[in-house]
Amino acid sequence: MKHAIEFTDTCKEYGRVRALHGLNLQVPQGEVVGLLGHNGAGKTTTIKLILGIIEPTRGKVEVLGSSPTGKAARALRMQWGYLPESVGFYEQLSGREVLDYFARLKRVGGRERDQLLERVGLAEAARRRVKTYSKGMRQRLGLAQALLGRPRLLLLDEPTVGLDPIAVREFYTMLDDLRRQGTTVILSSHVLPGIEQHIDRVAMLREGTLQAYGTLDELRRQTGLPLKIRASGRWPHGFWKQRLAEQGIAHYRVNGTHLEIETQSESQLDVMRLLLSDESVQNLDVHPPSLESLYIHFNSPDVREAAHA
Ligand code: ATP
Q1: pLDDT of residue 190
Q2: What is the pLDDT of residues 49-96, one digit of tens each?
Q3: Rounded Cα–Cα distance for residues 163 and 178 (Å)
Q4: Which residue puts its alpha carbon closest to atom 9 of ligand 1?
Q5: At residue 80, what are phi and psi to the nearest 5 degrees?
Q6: Pairing of strands 201-206, 58-63
Q7: Measured between alpha carbons, how far apart are the two ends of the chain, in Å?
Q8: Pick from 80, 48, 53: which is nearest to 64 by CA?
Q9: Taking 80 as the threshold, does the pLDDT of residue 132 lie above it?
Q10: Closest residue to atom 26 of ligand 1, CA basis
């Protein structure tokens, strides 16, 4: 089994609503995939299909080599962890009791439960009732629940919603650990800034259709969006304007100390050589197109029509 998850021509309809159509998607084992899309794009539907909570109207879903609604469903449930979009717990129980309940379902012992409470920063509050927890604390408890039993596959629906900036950073550190350990992770989100360095691939959904799927580099090549080269230093008025005109470089912004050039990746080295050839340049940074600009590109009306054609 090469792929942790495989969708083949998968469709899901709710009456007249086509939540997902013709989804073909393969998630390699051990990768972290960002599942991105606007409201109603089909992210939760995709996750529910993986979990076997719903069945496809047409097409096939395979998870860790088996159908999530077939005979292997029970065994599969022991191998994955799921953090739903909105986490609801028994309010009268303490965080520890809640986790205990889920730990028993997954046949996990008290030691791992306590380690997880520690890991998500709830050790101190573990004996308090959930009804006294803040939104972020509930989200942390949800994360601990999803991590029970060291799952091979982790499905996280909007995991950073309600978390404060420090908790978000801790979450990404945890995600990086899981990635190193070879866990396959699906991370559904609208929140783009900050996630790019923690994911291997991106799947972009729009109105139930997969608009784009690949590594960030693959998507960057596909879009042909320019990268930005930024230089700083000190140079005489009009100096770079003239030099760039001589080289036929037209897309740039410059003042006396900062210069930003937009260029295609094939020309990146030539532009860098040109800038470094003059000692007025003291610093140079290269900025490839951000995940946000890729997202905007793939959600623009033109690209959408091309995908439907
Ligand atoms: P969000 O970011 O807002 O959570 P999403 O990308 O997770 O959105 P889904 O919840 O998968 O989107 O919904 C996809 C489409 O399917 C939407 O049009 C939604 O209204 C519809 N849908 C989802 N569940 C049902 C349901 N049980 N009955 C009818 N329509 C549904």
Answers
A1: 81
A2: 999 999 999 999 999 999 999 888 888 888 999 998 877 888 899 999
A3: 19
A4: 42
A5: -125, 160
A6: unpaired
A7: 33
A8: 80
A9: yes
A10: 14
